[in-house]
Amino acid sequence: xxxxxxxxxxxxxxxxxxAFGDDPKNYHTVRPAYPExxxxxxxxxxNLRSGIDILEIGAGTGLATVVLAAHQPKRFVAIEPDxxxxxxxxxxxxxxxxxxxxxxxxxxxxxxxxxxxIVCATAFHWLDEASALRRFQHLLRPGGxxxxxxxxxxxxxxxxxxxxxxxxxxxxxxxxxxSGDPGRPPFALDFERRLKELSDAGFQTDPVRTWHWPLxxxxxxxxxxxxxxxxxxVLPSNDRATLLDALAEVAKAEFGGIVERNMTTALYVGFKxxxx
Length: 276
Fold this sequence. Notes:
The chain is of the alpha/beta class.
């Protein structure tokens, strides 16, 4: 969502590992693809090429996985703890090189220095940042890279009329860790903290790259997209349906059936020092 809510409590990170599996096809259909610029940077700066070993964390329905697989890695391990999402992922990408581990990243049995590239797309906020980054260091080969990125729904620096018109519809309750800490930018856009975490874990970092672009939705698109947000999926089913219907009605009645949401894609790249 657009910004943090000071009085809300955070959704437990464990919930985030099973928050999106009720309707994998809808999630896969309505969640927007990552800009092509992301892939260009990964090819230029993060070792993304054919013949490498890749680890993806929080693969979900495969929005990033399918593009990574198309680069023909030698070995490709995708971690997806939700069995429903993992089943969908297998059906979407029947690539024999793709090994799907249906378990949390923290407990996955992975050997040290096994990968040239570790990626995490719109999922890192569900991990404990410091311990996850330390493990990334452990799993990367010298000279390897980690790439972490998000599609963020909103941008605190630009007007967001639909967000402003619908904030009051959401019950005061739990917010995703993606909202960020009180008084701070959204998690993915808190550049200072995210870069410091990478640096503290021993990574050399590139400057953060961001891209701003519009997402156009009709009322049905609003209903389906918001039904994939964790602060919506956490609601009881009746409350969820009431909220989604109200959002779609605002899109129809107040926005003429055309909603434009500001999107921000933020990409962080870090490098493990090569062995001397």
